[in-house]
């Protein structure tokens, strides 16, 4: 009887020890897999797969499934990169192929305008020229957006006076405001507004926002710069048609436009490009609507 009891006790202790070791190896495998996953997630392009310390059936099956999933994700990523590269190349080719005939067609329309015999013909030709110019702007913005997304366009990070850049851009659009009978309110600080950025990039951001304001705005244009803490805030505001929260949420999305009929001279890419450039210059951009006024605020960290 004592022998049976001793054997049972020994067997129990042995099984308990085995269970402890199994549990320890289980935990070691889980920690090992978790560490590998973190390392793999930090690497953008890697063919590394998961391994196990000890071959435990359930853990091994889990690792095999995770490895299969990672292989599928990598194959999908490669296909997406190839599709994006082909898409960018197609946009580039289309842009180049259409620029020349559009320029030629615009030249002929202008010649017809010079020889038009009545007001009706001039009106029709003006509409044709306006549509051609709209297509040219669309192609240019598509081309620019593709180049920005692909990283082909790079932006410097050097000290620039954003106040001077905004002043120059406002001067560029003086005639446009004059044509619509509007004189914007401009509030600028007396001192330069030095930020770390790229002159041409910031100029493109301001230009796109002003163009959008002229096309969609209803009046009471106001452009100002405020020094808030360690940043400069550039605000562009104007009266606008009513805007919903969805409009504000999607206003910077690619090809989004509130004018669903597309009757206005808009491509839906101007604000998207402005946002992409702002992000690359370490700034932030937001849209607001309050009491009938639409505004866009851009924040750039200031430098002394």
UniProtKB/TrEMBL annotation:
Domain of life of the source: Bacteria
GO molecular function, one term: kinase activity
Residue ranges the record marks as coiled coil: 52-86
Its EC number(s): 2.7.13.3
Mode of membrane association: Multi-pass membrane protein
Catalysed reactions, as listed in the record: ATP + protein L-histidine = ADP + protein N-phospho-L-histidine
Cellular compartment(s): Membrane
CDD domains registered for this protein in UniProt: HATPase, HisKA
Entry's transmembrane regions: 6-25
PROSITE patterns, A to Z: HIS_KIN
Occurrences of domain Histidine kinase (ranges): 93-304
Protein name: histidine kinase
């Amino acid at each position: 009887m004592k022998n049976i009891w001793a054997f049972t006790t020994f067997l129990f202790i042995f099984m308990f020890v085995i269970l402890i070791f199994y549990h320890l190896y289980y935990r070691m495998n889980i920690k090992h897999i978790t560490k590998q996953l973190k390392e793999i997630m930090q690497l953008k392009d890697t063919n590394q797969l998961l391994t196990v310390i000890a071959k435990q059936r359930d853990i091994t099956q889990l690792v095999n499934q995770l490895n299969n999933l990672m292989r599928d994700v990598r194959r999908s990523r490669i296909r997406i990169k190839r599709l994006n590269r082909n898409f960018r190349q197609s946009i580039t080719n289309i842009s180049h192929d259409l620029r020349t005939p559009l320029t030629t067609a615009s030249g002929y329309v202008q010649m017809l305008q010079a020889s038009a015999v009545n007001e009706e013909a001039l009106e029709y030709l003006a509409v044709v020229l306006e549509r051609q110019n709209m297509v040219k702007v669309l192609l240019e913005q598509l081309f620019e957006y593709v180049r920005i997304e692909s990283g082909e366009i790079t932006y410097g990070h050097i000290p620039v006076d954003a106040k001077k850049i905004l002043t120059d851009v406002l001067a560029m659009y003086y005639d446009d405001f004059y044509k619509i009978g509007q004189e914007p309110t401009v509030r600028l600080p007396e001192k330069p507004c030095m930020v770390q950025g790229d002159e041409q990039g910031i100029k493109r951001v301001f230009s796109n926002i002003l163009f959008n304001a002229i096309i969609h705005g209803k009046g009471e244009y106001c452009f100002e710069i405020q020094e808030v803490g360690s940043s400069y805030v550039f605000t562009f505001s104007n009266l606008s048609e009513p805007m919903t929260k969805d409009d504000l949420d999607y206003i910077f999305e690619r090809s989004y436009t509130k004018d669903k009929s597309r009757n206005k001279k808009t491509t839906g890419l101007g604000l998207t490009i402005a946002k992409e450039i702002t992000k690359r210059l370490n700034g932030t951009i937001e849209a607001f609507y309050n009491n009938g006024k639409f505004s866009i605020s851009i924040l750039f960290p200031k430098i002394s």
